[in-house]
Amino acid sequence: MSGYLLSLAIWTPIVAGLVVLFTGSDRNAPLARGLALLGAVLGLLVTLPLYTGFDKATSAMQFVEQASWIAPFNINYHLGVDGISMPFVILNAFITILVVLAGWKVIEQRVAQYNAAFLIMSGLLNGIFCALDGVLFYVFFEASLIPLYLIIGMWGGPNRVYAAIKFFLYTLMGSLLFLIALIYLFFQSGGSFSIQDWHQLPLDLTTQIWLFLAFLVAFAVKVPMWPVHTWLPDAHVEAPTGGSVVLAAIALKLGAYGFLRFSLPIAPDASHELSGLMIGLSLIAVIYIGFVALVQADMKKLVAYSSIAHMGFVTLGFFMLNPLGVEGALVQMISHGFVSGAMFLCIGVLYDRMHSRQIADYGGVVNTMPKFAAFFMLFSMANAGLPATSGFVGEFMVILGAVEYNFWVAFAAATTMIVGAAYTLWMYKRVVFGAVANSHVAELEDINAREFFFLAILALCVLGMGLYPLPFTEVMHASVNDLLQHVAQSKLQ
Amino acid sequence: MDMKSLYLLVPLAPLAGAIVAGLFCRVIPRWLAHTATILGVAVAFITSIVIFQDVLAGNSFNGTVYQWLASGEYKFEVGFLIDKLTVTMMLVVTSVSLMVHLYTIGYMQEDPGYNRFFSYISLFTFSMLMLVMSNNFMQLFFGWEAVGLVSYLLIGFWYTRPTAIFANMKAFLVNRVGDFGFILGIGLVLAHFGSLDYATVFAKAPELANKTINIWGSADWSLMTVACICLFIGAMGKSAQVPLHVWLPDSMEGPTPISALIHAATMVTAGIFMVARMSPLFELSDTALSFVLVIGATTALFMGFLGIIQNDIKRVVAYSTLSQLGYMTVALGASAYSVAIFHLMTHAFFKALLFLGAGSVIIGMHHDQDMRNMGGLRKYMPITWITSLIGSLALIGTPFFAGFYSKDSIIEAVALSNIAGAKYAYFAVMAGVFITAFYSFRMYFLVFHGEERFGKAHHDHHGDHEDEEPADDHHHGLAPGQKPHESPWVVTVPLIALAIPSVIIGYIAIEPMLFGDYFKGVIHVNEEAHPVMEALHHHFHGAVAMALHAVTTPVFWLAFSGVALSWFFYMKRPDIPAAIKARFSGIYTLLDNKYYFDKFNEVVFAGGARLLGRGLWKGGDVALIDGLLVNGSARLVGAIASVVRFFQSGYIYHYAFTMIIGVFVLLTLWFNRA
Hints:
The complex is a heterodimer. Chain A is mostly helical. Helix content of chain A is 73%, strand content 3%.
């Protein structure tokens, strides 16, 4: 059993999704919802042994599974996790439950298909984090686009088709170059698609730079980094709440994960060579996007832009290439999963009642929804990086790591403490505080038990991680140290 | 119980109270909310006394509670450092907090947010205790931001008032500017000392005294100077030093009990505490100390001027707080850290007293805060009157009162300091004495003496905020014919309890705190470079002698003339201030606009940020990236597609032929690969 944990993590939600799909039309919607929740909970349960059984001492891949898949091309069904990928498998399974709950009452059409799409996507995303074979990774990487594309295109807002296609083309453009890079590596390594083999492959600097750039295009779009970020606000605005949650909490992490799994270890010299460029782009994301977020009138767009700024911290942390930076960035990725997920759920709670995301349509929500206001306050503060919330930990580590790297990089990055607080609190003030703004706000009902449940769970995660982040970073140490040592060794002869 | 559990009990007891009152604020009755929180704070206070005695007996503690995080070779821990500085702060925080909790029962009794308010002030007490008890920079920053959060929540406590929710956001953001510097300072400490633990850092400080870092161009900067100035920027935000002071006057939008607790006695002094705690670092940089001195002196003098023209009773006290925080900062800059902490302590008591007294007046006036509507209140509110008089006398530095000993010591210390900027600072603190006496007694006379002006046509309650006031029953004022009344015992008892230390604490504490070995080993002064304390000690011949000698000094006569002038202006000839206001309208306008700091920030920073954001969004994202690149390439694809369409003939043999050629080309490439 324990030998197949990763397969279970991948295939449990996919099978559950297929089962849900077979419940068919909306007459069976309650059954579809129940089965989806069951599948999502099972999906989380099978990932828990990954944490409890994880060996923190080693940087080697754990829970490894290997079987031949397409023998002529030496393509394998090769799975394994280390301290970098394992947390994201669990996070993903956890978020899936929240997404099923968030759509419980809200999605009334094609319920089975909606839930199936999320479950299948959850499995595919786990596949990405577990894959150790280049082709397997690529297949999962691309396949995961399809459910998300469908979710935005079918259950999204009025402009959903434009957003879905923009999202699809943007990310597809990146992945084509990625595929070419994979095939090139296959030939260079003498016929291996094993990512771990590629890590050891000596490559000259020019080759490394070309590979790095090919990876960069693929991953930068996913993160998204400036200037290939403009698909994200559109996708978020049009996506249903669940879609936004998965997009922000998990899908954005894929690009960042790709940097750690491909760019840094395969092209270490190029990573050093181009780290200035990467840090520059990251700082632009942090500062430029922060100011753009400030002036958004649409809550979802504001949080979408804030996501880009937070992801800028992640790429910044990676390319300073010191432990504080890399671990801080990983912590930031997990925290951002909780916090941005919670922010989108909060906006969803409001949208379900008012059918508007415009800040100007709100005001004085606290008068009618005090419980909601308290949760939203907590998550807003986490978004602004307040200590004792998870949002602080990663930011703090990355800023401290940046001072070690270069004072002015830290100076630029730390401006987020001001700008991030400004856009988050200004939105909060206009939406929540004040006298009741209009008759719609006056009629709002506070959150129900279901909403209270998912917000409370996220609140516990945000506070727990903020007060005691050690368990999260403990599992990363060995893998991150190994990665940094590996990156420090030149592949040039 | 062993001492370590007692240390834990101090912050956790108020936290437990806050959780009870906060999580269940909608279900539990009021008595339970205030009992739970008061009990928590009382436990913290009593435990602090026990710890105080233990520390006096010569014990101290520096240890870890739990490891928060580890990364690379760095460890981040939550832990306590219990020494005399900590325990002094613990006593100040818990005692003032206890008084404020009690007072709140009376002050907030009609408020629907009663339970929530108690939860917040207990949460504040917890955060502040974590801040002062910390043994490392990380936890200090934790407490630092947590008190900022509670301050934010409390300034915006009346969340339907537009001015309140503007003020709380402003407070948070201005503090974030300070935190921005603070976190860079912490980063520099970590990067160069390899630890955030106080003891480790302070022990390593001397060997890094001459270390330089390359910050800008080719010039080398002293590490200590850069780090200390960064850290001090954090203190400037929290302790409201110019130019990051702008949030404090607006914070008066919050209910009065928190103005006393947070915005006078404790939170705003966190910056002072922080610099005193880091004396081993600041002592190594004269540049940083000069910077501290000049900023403090500027705050002390120029914020005092603003107190003169305020009509809102709370705002007078707020500007006096700003000015007194400037005094403390001046003391830090003069290397008289113990004097700064001494003034912090005396100020906590008499300023909390003044605020709570002002609050009592506000209750008596039915939530009218405009001093132009008051007058002659001494007849109706005798306890409030006497205790406020005591507070005012302490504030202006009347000999034998608490404020005299601390403020006079600051002035003496500055006079003895030889650091750059000390002359300016000396002038500022001397002039400040006169100004403080003048505005304090202007307030005192306007409120408690003279003609009874209440119950008549109202000036606007908030003086300078004419645009606000939705129908809100917190602010109605006295109806015509109605008389003010003395406040209930839950209000007056804290006043009396705070009046006692406002009189005697200076007399008791000056000798051990400043000249004994109370702070030995806690506050570090480089005696050779900054021999201020030694010289001060030389001039000191006991507390009584100091007070008697004071009558012959100019400081005393400056304060005296300030009181006399305000008596003449506001009791004898009320036409003179009006004439001066008309004659010097330019200066009045400058003061009334608070030197235009707010306007400048609003236009340049807030407006500039929005403009920049809109420019980047519309110009960058929408026009350049989406318009030109994304949609442009879509159009390009469209154009190519119209050419490609030509090849889609629909004849199978065309396709088959193309495929065969393609396969041959690929095979050729495959076999001829390198």
